[in-house]
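call fold(seq) -> tokens
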Amino acid sequence: MSRRRIVGHERQRAGLTRLLRSASLPSALVFSGPAGIGKSLVAKALAATLLCEDAGQDLVGCLKCNACRLVETGNHPDLISFDCSDREYSKMENVRELLHRLHLRAFNGNKRAVVFNNAEHLSIQATNALLKAVEEPRAGTHFILVTSNHSRLPPTLLSRCQLWFFDSLSQEQIAAVLKEQPEVFHDAKLSDLGITADELVLLTDGSLDSIEHIIDRLDDWRMVTSTLDQIAAGDLSQALHFAKDLAREKNSLRERLGLMRIHARRRMNDASDWDEQYRWSIFITNLISTERLAFERNLGAVYCLNNCFLDLSSRSFTRLTNDDRILDHITL
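ret:
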């Protein structure tokens, strides 16, 4: 039976395997980590193991029995999956329908697995309905909530689940996966795009969420890297103009901030002296603060960006460790 290969997460997979072997797997788990790193694949593998007719205790299932085949094709009646980013699936009515199904007998054996992908998109009403089922789970029923931001789950629900953290993939792991996709990772294709294999791996930023999306934003990548290098070389005028240009296009600002962090991290790692490493590390910290202030506190993006770029250009090493630094800057 073919199965999309899980890459990385050895520590998490080993821990889950130990729980399976000792029959101590909790009834509710949260898998949290960046999007596109394979959390859903691990959740599916765990579900397959729970439902496997051969009672496999490794995190793959036997891959041969009827239950494993049904899981792989998405047709197992005792594996219920929701994509909560789809509003229809995240509604309270659908969760209530699920809870009703859980009161019925399982189709095969006595185990059920319920996987909520993108669980952070569940509505408040839906999570409240789910809470009772998690608090009083039926025997043999396991809930797996997969999320890229567990802090958006209600604390009442989160406190009743065992939280598992998943890390971004390493560049070596990303490269290994991409080499299995010749339609993407092909020298001729990369040459046509004007990008090296190493750059493509770097741009994934430890996630395989959407290679096509990465390729679509190559123009942004070239613009960001070129402009940041000019600013770092001391171009104050470019710093001010770039801040204004980015702030005017707020719909693409978050993605461009992400590209800036990738480039800044590369410059920091490539730096030959401590001062240069520290300079870029402070810039990364400031970018993270800027994103939070601009999107969560609705501060003017241009002011936040001006602060970041002027510090980078002037080599002032001003670290924004809290919001007051930017607020004082705006007041002045």
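The first helix runs from residue 10 to 21.
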